[in-house]
């Protein structure tokens, strides 16, 4: 009996995705494990392997189609003993999706006012790696002739074009005035979630300055000792301090959940990681019972897999709070939008030498960081938020406590 191939769900939050490209054409034989299509989800761009063997008999949803709902029939696979008539009857019984100009993707980037003669019904095929490299270097892919299978643009094509541009060439006969970028499914989901958060979550904000002079010296002493396989970052220590603070102030370890408050029994912390076309928030689970060195090693692994879009769903779903650290970009202070359904988010600025008065009222210079704290007022009140920041300050100003 012919098999209906449906749009798969590749993450717990995925409701729809972009069908970037078919890696097989109609009539091709496929085996279990063959890569048959590429899908751009709200989290990652993934190559999808077949779980069936047979022949790709009919493609229902074409390459380049945007916003295909999960479980939508996208193709028919004919098995060994299936008759052509049974495939035709099944295909006829499935209504084809209506593809409009709003749902058709001719390319990852659509260049305006460029005199390029292309068949607009034929989608531009490009591998995920080539797309990332093109985005990184700002290369217009609309005029590149792919040398991969079925004219697919591959890594080598992008690198050759980069070499031409580096030597003063131009990859278009008429330079465009501007470029429109179609949203990736990830960027589309981020836009929806954060717009909804800002509009529907009653944010309120607090800020404090924390003396991290001792923290920086503590980190330097550990890293200079050479006794450990990993180098600590300031963010590693901040994660541990936040974990202990949440343990001490459990009333902030909450989220809004459709009309009631969900209180977490574990301390799971999300960290914001910027990637090429969006943001991921991998989770450090049970951070309060892990050592600083264990957290440091885990963070490095999660960040690496996040940038390569190789995180498993359980590694980026959940968390009672998010930490967003822009200190490495010399940002003094900022406030983030809450990552729903979490109850709060911390925003960490850079450490700067600042004149302060010590306990004896002597003017000294100290390394100070500004911490912004945005909370959902439906689940966290002002007093609890203030106590959390005070507790966090105590841990960061007394780093020896992080080893207890």
Short description:
The chain is 27% helix and 26% strand. It is an alpha+beta fold.
Uncertain segments are: 97-121
**Net shape:** elongated
Cα end-to-end separation: 63 Å
Relative helix content: 25-40%
**Overall radius of gyration:** 26 Å
* CATH class categorisation of the largest domain: Alpha Beta
Figure out the total of helices.
8
Mean pLDDT value: 84
**Multimeric state:** single chain
Structural class: alpha+beta
Number of domains: 3
Named CATH architecture of the largest domain? 2-Layer Sandwich
Topology-level CATH name of the largest domain: Chloramphenicol Acetyltransferase
- The count of DSSP E runs of length 2 or more, i.e. the number of strands, is 21
Order of helices and strands: EEEEEEEEHEHHEHEHHEEEEEEHEEEEH
- What can be said about the biggest beta sheet? 7 strands, mixed
- The CATH superfamily of the largest domain bears the name Chloramphenicol acetyltransferase-like domain
Tell me what portion of residues adopts beta-strand conformation.
25-35%
Keywords, separated by commas or semicolons:
8 helices, OB fold (Dihydrolipoamide Acetyltransferase, E2P), Dihydrolipoamide Transferase, alpha+beta, elongated, 7-stranded mixed β-sheet, 4-stranded antiparallel β-sheet, Chloramphenicol Acetyltransferase, 404 residues
Structure, explained:
The chain has helices spanning 84-93, 128-137, 155-166, 185-200, 213-225, 234-248, 292-307, 382-397, and strands at 3-6, 16-22, 29-30, 35-40, 45-49, 54-59, 65-69, 73-78, 109-111, 179-181, 203-211, 254-257, 260-263, 269-271, 273-275, 278-280, 283-284, 321-325, 344-348, 352-357, 363-376. By secondary structure, the protein is α+β, with helices and mostly antiparallel strands. It has 3 domains: 3-93, Beta Barrel (OB fold (Dihydrolipoamide Acetyltransferase, E2P)), CATH 2.40.50; 109-181, E3-binding domain (Dihydrolipoamide Transferase, Irregular), CATH 4.10.320; 201-403, 2-Layer Sandwich (Chloramphenicol Acetyltransferase). Helix 2 runs parallel beside helix 3 and helix 6 packs across helix 7. It is elongated and about 90 Å long. Mean pLDDT is 84; it is low at 97-121.
């Amino acid at each position: 009996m012919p098999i209906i191939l449906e749009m798969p769900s590749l993450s717990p939050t995925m409701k729809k995705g972009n069908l970037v490209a078919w890696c097989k054409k109609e009539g091709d034989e496929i085996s279990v494990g063959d890569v048959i299509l590429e899908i751009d989800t709200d989290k990652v761009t993934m190559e999808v392997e077949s779980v069936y063997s047979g022949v790709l008999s009919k493609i229902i949803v074409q390459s380049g189609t945007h916003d295909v709902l999960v479980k939508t029939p996208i193709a028919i696979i004919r098995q060994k003993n299936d008759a052509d008539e049974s495939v035709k009857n099944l295909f006829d019984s499935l209504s084809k999706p209506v593809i409009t100009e709003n749902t058709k993707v001719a390319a990852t980037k659509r260049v305006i006012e460029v005199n390029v003669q292309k068949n607009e019904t034929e989608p531009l095929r490009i591998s995920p790696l080539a797309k990332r490299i093109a985005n990184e270097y700002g290369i217009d892919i609309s005029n590149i002739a792919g040398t991969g299978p079925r004219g697919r643009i591959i890594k080598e094509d992008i690198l050759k074009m980069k070499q031409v541009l580096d030597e003063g060439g131009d990859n278009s006969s008429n330079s465009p005035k501007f470029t429109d970028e179609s949203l990736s499914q990830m960027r589309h989901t981020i836009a929806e979630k954060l717009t909804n958060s800002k509009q529907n979550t009653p944010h309120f904000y607090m800020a404090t300055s924390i003396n991290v002079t001792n923290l920086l010296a503590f980190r330097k002493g550990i890293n200079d000792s050479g006794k450990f396989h990993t180098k600590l970052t300031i963010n590693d220590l901040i994660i541990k301090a936040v974990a202990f603070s949440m343990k001490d102030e459990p009333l902030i370890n909450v989220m809004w959940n459709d009309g009631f408050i969900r209180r977490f029994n574990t301390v799971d912390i999300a960290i914001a990681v910027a990637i090429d076309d969006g943001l991921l928030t991998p989770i450090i689970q049970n951070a309060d019972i892990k050592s600083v060195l264990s957290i440091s090693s885990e963070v490095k692994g999660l960040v690496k897999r996040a940038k390569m879009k190789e995180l498993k769903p359980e590694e980026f779903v959940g968390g009672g709070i998010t930490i967003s650290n822009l200190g490495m970009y010399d940002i003094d202070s900022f406030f983030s939008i809450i990552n729903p359904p979490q109850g709060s988010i911390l925003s960490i600025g850079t450490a700067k030498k600042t004149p302060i008065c010590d306990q004896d009222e002597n003017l000294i210079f100290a390394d100070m960081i500004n911490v912004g704290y945005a909370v959902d007022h439906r689940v966290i009140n002002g007093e609890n938020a203030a106590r959390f920041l005070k507790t966090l300050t105590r841990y960061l100003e007394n780093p020896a406590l992080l080893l207890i």
